[in-house]
Specification:
The complex is a heterodimer of chains A (330) and B (87). Chain A has 330 residues and is of the alpha/beta class. Chain A is built from ten helices and ten strands. Chain A is globular, with a radius of gyration of 20 Å. In chain B, helix 1 (11-21) runs antiparallel to helix 2 (39-52).
Amino acid sequence: MKRNYYIFSNGRIKRKDNTICLENEKGKKYIPINDIEALYIFGEVDFNSKVLNFFGQNNITVHIFNYYGFYTSSIYPREHLLSGYSLVNQVKKYLDPVERIKLARETINTASYNILKNLKYYNPRRNEKLEDIILKIEKERKKIPYTNGIQDLMGTEGRIRDLYYSGFSIITMGKFKMKKRVKRPPDNPMNTLISFGNSLMYTTVLSEIYRTQLNPTISYLHEPGERRFSLSLDISEVFKPIITDRTIFKLINEGMIDQNHFTKELNFCHLNEKGRKVFMQQYEDKLNTVIKHKELERQVSYRRLIRLECYKLIKHINDIENYEGLKMWW
Amino acid sequence: MYILIVYDVGEKRVQKVLKFIRKHLIWIQNSVFEGNVTKAELLKIKNGLKEIVDQKEDSIIFFTARNERWIKKEIMGREKNATDNFI
């Protein structure tokens, strides 16, 4: 039942009476420590080591975003679910090129399945204009099992994504035009939304990985690098179409977001506070949406699905059950 | 589940109860807290409170609902403390 807390206001976060208190000129606001899943900080906030210790004790990750709303860092508590056995197996799967590409392929396979699912959902609603893109993606998708090497697979993935993004203006009925995906910095509102959404996805997945025995730095599709949690990039691929893209479409199609939610002076490359809030609220709603899980036979939220995905990965790594990505069945 | 806790305890213990429940739920009014918890957490809250209060004198009432949506919340006058997670 724990929730994410998003802090947009400025002030000082204190440990007070064994719970968290945000103090600013408006007064004190207590946040129940047992209700915090993760903390997202967008405002300008001070805190001291006492608070960090307290977060550590309660296994709370803190994600920090800069002034422009871009993800910069996380404060990640000491690992508390350690499993040397799993870690060794996780690395083994990475070192074996055959095993590695198997996992990487399945990730892309699943991601592209979910991408197609999105397009197929919107196709009849947009007078079949997406037909062309769907066919092209399906063609690319067939190549996945025959790719040799990660580079090749990444190329296929890139082409699928380009095709997919070219369909965005049709899905949003031309309200937000986008020629191509531009990052660092995004050059138009649509790219801004995607960047922002993806950075949120990345942190959400990281918080979930943290609750399992997986090591977030060892990944299969993305090259494990220095100083980044690349496994969460891998898993995010599966969830981007399901969670962030759907949120973006909803925001635009229902007119919840418009030009006023971006900073004009910066060439629309950044969401202002109002925009961020609207986005986060919808994103949060999406994460809490429940669906009936076929195998578990009970209601699970989208957030929970991310955790289940991690569990599936653990099972694969320890050779208990082959990993099969989450393909949207609803 | 969604719970609402209302308490009326002796003056000496008011602060203790307040500080304890603040760790789990959101304060909405003097002596009133609300929030979403799991069954286990509710049990933790109850056990914690048992330690603090004097059961002969004090009274604490728990309202529970399976889900927040089965309860309608209406506020007249000022909302003293918002319960959402966007701060």
